[in-house]
Amino acid sequence: MILKSKDLLGLKDMSAEEIEYILDTAKTMKYVLTSNSKRTPHLQGKSIVTLFYENSTRTRLSFELASKYMSASSANINSSGSSVAKGESLIDTGKTIDMMGTDVIVIRHPQSGAPHLLAKHVKASVINAGDGMNEHPTQALLDMFTIREKKGTLKGLKVAIIGDIYHSRVARSNIWGLTKMGAEVSLAGPATLIPPKLEMTGVRVYSTVHEALMDADVVIALRMQLERQKKALFPSIREYSRFFGLDENRLRLAKKDVLIMHPGPVNRGVELSSAVADHDQSAINEQVTNGVAVRMALLYLLTRRGTNEAAD
Ligand code: CP
């Protein structure tokens, strides 16, 4: 099997079979990652560039380490330390990177659709590492990988996503991915942070966190994205935490073995209490490890498209 597109721009247009294939490949990559010798020749001769117009710790570092573990050449460009700061356009920046023999460009950008625009103008594969309020597909893939690893399947699970749904590209990618894989998604957050017309097959929107959490197998708490809010959309952080923050009391509404997740970075005491973040059933640290495995799988699968091996 090969991935349909040269790029990974979002999960909206990806099939369940492709998602399954990426998750299966990531399982193999996790063996490599957790072995004593984290070095494979999978990307020998390949060149990976990360192009970040927004801050990141997890996503950027995991792509950089994934490239190194698989023997690729890798480089990083920040908007502040490059010719972007002199006014160079995204397309010109992308073409410049492309002309240096780059095989994959990993981009994070504040504008929704920026990776799609870049992908149209470069030969390299483009991976969306988060575009505005649109999608963060590699985060959703690592979230699904973590759930599948812990629960054995995604099909039939009830996954509650709590918080700032409106600004969350993580929520959007997870909604596309989880529903394609047969999970039922329950959403809750302040009314001002729930986008209109979100009800779709497999998705339920609740006004209280209690309803969304009831009998949940998995809960994903989202980061409050204050940097994307042009005006105050709820009275205060304290108020948000009171009505939507996850503490041990609220967690009792979910199934006993509920899996606790958060994409990071966590604002302790806002989205989650420290007791919940550090709970035995919290997979937050494992999500980080799985992020490297999933990104190794994606780099491998995208760079082997068009090779003889890919035709197997
Ligand atoms: N979850 C996530 O995208 O984290 P970073 O912003 O640190 O990459």
Question: Can you tell me about this structure?
Answer:
The chain has 312 residues and is an alpha/beta fold. 37% of the residues lie in helices and 15% in strands. It contains 11 helices and 9 strands. The strands form 2 sheets. The chain has a 5-stranded parallel β-sheet. It has a 4-stranded parallel β-sheet with strand order 2-1-3-4, sandwiched between helices. Helix 1 (16-33) packs across helix 5. The structure holds phosphoric acid mono(formamide)ester. Residues 56-59, 130, 139, 263-265 line the site of phosphoric acid mono(formamide)ester.
How is the secondary structure organized here?
Elements: H1 16-33, E1 47-52, H2 58-69, E2 73-78, H3 90-98, E3 104-109, H4 114-121, E4 125-131, H5 137-151, E5 158-162, H6 169-180, E6 184-188, E7 203-206, H7 209-213, E8 218-221, H8 237-244, H9 248-251, E9 259-261, H10 274-277, H11 284-303
Parallel strand pairs: 1-2, 1-3, 3-4, 5-6, 5-8, 6-7, 8-9
Helix pairs in contact: 1-5, 1-11, 2-11, 3-4, 5-6, 5-11
This protein binds phosphoric acid mono(formamide)ester.
